[in-house]
Amino acid sequence: MKLVIYKKQILHRFSALAYIMMIGVALSLVSCSEDFIEDPTDTTGANSGVIFSDKSNVETYIAGILANYKGQYRTVDVGGLYAMYFARAVKGNDIIQAFSWYTFDYGHENREATFRRTNFTWDFNYENVNFANVLIDGVTKSTSLSEADKKELIAQGKFFRGFHLFELVLEFAPNYNNNRDLVRIPVYTEPTSVENVTGNPPVPLSEVYNQVIQDLEDAIADLPTTRLGKSFVNKAVAQAVLTRVLAVTQDDWPKMSTLAKAAYGGSASTAVQSSSWQTGFNNMQDQEWLWAMFQNGSDETNFFWGHAAPMMDHLTTSYRATYFDPDFVSTFSNSDVRNRFFDIYGVSATTPWREFISTKYAFTFASDIPILRKSEMVLFDAEAQYHMGNENEARSLLFALQSARDANATISTNTGQALLDEILLERKKEFFGEFGPQWFDAKRYNLPINRNNIHRIPINVPANSNLFYLKIPQDEMDLNPNYAGFTND
């Protein structure tokens, strides 16, 4: 695991104190890949004894972890969590990315062992795994925190560890069910220190997923339903993330349905109600948003960095880099509120791939960034019902979303594979530009990603292609002796 902390790694955060306190503990923690850490400008008042002596201080440390999600690392396309998600979004056949940031992700070229996408994704997630382990260890050893507070705070740490291990195994390994014994990445459950610079060995995917599931189950058991705000995590967020995990493992559909229902609140028709489609998709106060990154346009924002809004909004000053495939646009009816596609440039004849833009996002510096939404959980519930043989219930859940987005929608009559295909298409239509649902679904279902010739890069990615995952970073290969002899394909 490589943990390098840069002075400008997080320029805008929940608060300066949150970042300082998080880094104050982490400054002494490095791994096998680097033997230095560059000090931040101000490290006063931050040590583990102070941080883990009081619940409010620990919560500030947690705010620092969450601030890292909208960080600014090296370039626009390798910032925080938003950058990793948008890199997945452009890999499908719905988005057409101009020659701008994320263009190499769009071309499925950005996976080599020395490339910034690979190194950022590894560093960002393992860094947060380490922050989580510091949190768990510090709270466990605290002599002043109450047992009730310890229980809740350790649950937060386990959530973050499970969440980021899941992101790592998604990014650096092929479909889990193709070979659960495949060895790709290491697991860390203790803080990494200067005394432990060898690095853990990579383990079978089954061990990684076992750790992910155990961490998230522990988090669900002990997290409260309340939280400071939607930027923070609670029981429902942990339930939603574990739902995503089970959508990948595909070995417990009843549990997946139960978790999804708990996350969206049980009433699908209520859960999917949203005003975001009419107002620029930038306000986390929408009841349908489950977990999001808060931004306020000043000290808590990442300005023009690479989440979907500055890429997709062509009506304000931003990158104006994202266009949409006409075949994808044609899947939306005229009465669908999500059909916000327009030809504003009039260039379809000369540059067909630039025909359609979308006004889904209205970009400002205060645009909040969605991470999880209840509608995803409703569709996961529909998917689970389908696999359990409850097709009527699956159609009903699917229709709950479709009818909320399109007043003229009619309930599906599809059965069998056609019904599952419709559910997966609805995921593409509902979450385009957010977290890469087509990439996620194609990978877990062993499906190809095929583009038509209108695309700027009309690549076809075969099912099970190694383009669905990143190579292990070369630094890790060079400095972790446990990777000796490893085939980095």
TrEMBL record:
The scientific name of the source species is Asprobacillus argus
Cited InterPro entries: SusD-like_N, SusD_RagB_dom, TPR-like_helical_dom_sf
> Sorted alphabetically, which Pfam families does this protein's record hold?
SusD-like_3, SusD_RagB
Residue stretches making up the SusD-like N-terminal domain: 80-245
Q: Which SUPFAM superfamilies match?
A: TPR-like
Asked if Ligase is a keyword of the record, the answer is no
Report the protein name in the record.
RagB/SusD family nutrient uptake outer membrane protein
The UniProt similarity line reads:
Belongs to the SusD family.
Domain spans labelled RagB/SusD: 367-466
- The residue ranges crossing the membrane are 12-30
Provide this UniProt record's keywords sorted from A to Z.
Answer: Cell outer membrane, Membrane, Signal, Transmembrane, Transmembrane helix
Q: Where in the cell is it found?
A: Cell outer membrane
